[in-house]
Amino acid sequence: MIQLHNNHYQIGGIDIDTLCKTYDTPIYVYDTAIIKRQYETLTKAFASCNTRIKFACKALNNINILRYFKQLGAGLDTVSIQEVWVGLKAGFEPHEIIYTPNCVSMEEIELAVQAGVQINIDNLSVLEQFGTKYGSTIPVCIRINPHVMAGGNINISTGHIDSKFGISIYQMRHAERIVNSLKMHVNGLHMHTGSDIVDVDIFLRAADILFEQTQYFKDLEFIDFGSGFKVPYKPDDYYTDMQELGEKLSKRFLEFCKEYGRDLQLSFEPGKFLVSQCGTFLVKVNVLKQTTAAMFVGVDSGLNHLIRPMFYNAYHHITNVSNPGGKERIYTVVGYICETDTFGWDRKLSEVHEGDILAFSNAGAYGNTMASNYNSRFRPAEVMVHEGKHYLIRKRENIDDLLRNQVELEEFK
Question: Which residues make beta-bridge pairs with 347?
């Protein structure tokens, strides 16, 4: 998150000019103070419950970021065996990690079992295969689909009737039969309706649906609501009111625990809420190009580094940090990839010159984790700002990284 101080833009008290001169561009910069603020906002909102926050590491998977979450007291939400392995290397204990895959092989799930993490299953076929192999020896969580349409984009809406995620609430009797016949131990119920949810009532409606499914499972230890909390992207943007959600959902959860006859753990798996605002993506202006229709600002990055604007039509606020207070003009900011990789149309920016540094806000979530080597471009460096100091936490790639796993055949040399 950038701040203007003495006519210089800073991240965590460090001048952006210093960061760019030290590490060059493009770079992702993460401010741990923002991560801590977001984590504490969430834990305070649900302080009346036995709450466990598990960071969804698909949002930002640098091992140093994971270790920082470990220090804060968070657990880890993973969606692949590779994320499990990285989490273990980051120092998380197996019981602190939940593994929620989708459409993976039983071989991968067996690797997660060997790692000792919490297994979360989201389809009947795998549930039956799992029960046949492990019976009651390995506890399992079940991910349900509540058939609630929620989320800011169809690609991140995961709880509706056409979603590939979760076991339908209308299949719970079938799930119960599998569990009972194979004597499985179901220790948790899980759901995730989608991302960028503003309406608190959507959470409450989905929560009631989830609570209803507990009638089929009498030995639960936790209820996991996934996440979907929205943070502001645009100026004056909407966001999830965490205080309101905390008050209403905590009250309902505690009432449910009394009805269920046991105090359960309340779990959440936020990704974007925890790290989106901590991240800033810094790029340099390569060219200005005037056409008959627009003034293009071409930068030293593209959809290979930050694909969210192209893939999700996501808005990232853009600031010309090299010209604070300059006269505003209208620009269209584009990348250097051989595709239409537009970061933002018709944006008001302080007058831009070639060589200026632009800052993309809310770049901490699903930025570098979705980066690629398209056009044989190198992926960028990552920098952490922590307690007034800055640290390189991922090197910029080079040609050796690009070719590392390619096998050169002698006959073509």
Answer: 331
